[in-house]
Write a structure and sequence with these properties.
By secondary structure, the chain is an alpha/beta fold. The protein has a domain at about 5-160 and about 190-220 and about 280-300: Rossmann fold. It has helices at about 20-30, 65-75, 95-110, 130-145, 165-175, 195-205, 225-235, 245-255, 270-275, 285, 305-310; strands at about 10-15, 35-40, 55-60, 80, 115-120, 150-155, 160, 180, 190, 190-195, 215, 225, 240-245. The strands form four sheets. Strands 3-2-1-4-5-6-11 form a seven-stranded parallel β-sheet, sandwiched between helices. The chain has a two-stranded parallel sheet with strand order 7-10. Strand 5, helix 4 (about 130-145) and strand 6 (about 150-155) form a beta-alpha-beta unit.
């Protein structure tokens, strides 16, 4: 096979993460060569069986070190950045990873002449009180300034077998006597299936998505946090008391929990701030077709997927549920 006939090479930063591994599998099925750029390649060998022999390679890269980013991008036709944080630890801060790191990837892709697909998040807002949302927005601005043809995808909270959202609360329902609803559980989400997001990424690599735009990827339904918890309880056949937790109390708990070293806090003050704003597709994106449907992808219903992996949290022998709320 000559170089001109070689399948295109896609470098994926954060390819070993929840979304990243689904992108790897989706692109591998399309025949692309894939270079997975991660901080610890020795912990990412599980990705290689997702493709044919030699199709998936691993590279060491850390977004805080520009030389490693440039090396990982060298020779790539497309670059995908899936790296993001939900809470800060040590030197891995929102500024360092979600802003500075994203800029480094964009500049490296530009210098290499590669296409760029960046995974952001619904709710990215330069004026947000949340550092998470603010750094996501700063990165978007910098990326489009550096690479005007970049494609930015903003998913809502994602669900799938290895997610850290539904699984987290299903496990909480298994162990805790009650489930706290921050702010009363009124925050709205539009959960999106991880494979639908991966398909959107793959279509962008295929050249079927217009560049220079921000797309908002929400699922088939909008649900409040309370409704999501009620769905989890029904699927897992659990009866738990739902207790409203005021924002300021949740923030205080998060502040105290964040002081414990080497322990991931159940919630952080920044996450509490995020919960004060709905996480749904903006009307402007819907009107302009910058959505999954606009990309020709019919969003998958959560009810069709959640039982396949949340059923493991059910008490043995139980298949029905009636819930109660406080």
């Amino acid at each position: 096979m000559t170089l001109s006939n070689m399948p295109k090479l896609v470098t994926i930063f954060g390819g070993s993460g929840f979304l990243g591994r689904h992108i790897v599998r989706t692109l591998a099925k399309r025949g692309y060569r894939i270079r997975v750029a991660v901080r610890r390649p020795d912990l990412a060998f599980h990705l290689q069986p997702l493709g044919n022999v030699g199709q998936i390679s691993l590279a060491q890269a850390n977004l805080r070190y520009r030389s490693s980013v440039d090396a990982a991008v060298q020779g790539a036709d497309y670059v995908i950045n899936c790296v993001g944080l939900m809470h800060q630890t040590g030197r891995n801060t929102f500024d360092a990873v979600q802003d500075f790191g994203a800029r480094a990837v964009a500049e490296a892709a530009r210098n290499a002449g590669a296409g760029l697909i960046h995974i952001s998040a619904i709710g990215a807002d330069i004026n947000s009180a949340s550092s998470y949302a603010r750094t996501k927005a700063k990165a978007e601005q910098a990326i489009l300034a550096s690479k005007p043809d970049a494609i930015i995808l903003r998913p809502s909270v994602m669900f799938g077998p290895e997610d850290n959202f539904y699984n987290k609360f299903a496990d909480m329902a298994r162990l805790a006597p009650a489930i706290p609803l921050v702010g009363g559980g009124h925050t709205k989400f539009q959960p999106v299936y991880v494979d639908d997001v991966a398909e959107a990424v793959a279509r962008a690599v295929d050249g079927k998505v217009a560049g220079g735009k921000i797309y908002e990827l929400g699922g088939a339904e909008v649900k409040s946090f309370r409704e999501i918890i009620e769905d989890i309880l029904e699927i897992t056949c659990r009866e738990k008391r739902l207790v409203s937790l005021p924002f300021f109390v949740a923030s205080l708990i998060g502040s105290i929990a964040s002081l414990v070293p080497f322990v991931t806090p159940p919630i952080t003050p920044d996450q509490v701030t995020l919960l004060k704003t709905d996480n749904v597709v903006y009307p402007e994106a819907i009107a302009e077709g910058r959505t999954l449907e606009g990309l020709g992808i019919q969003p998958t219903l959560a009810a069709a997927i959640l039982p396949s992996y949340l059923a493991r949290f059910r008490p043995e022998g139980q298949f029905t549920h009636t819930g109660s709320a406080a």
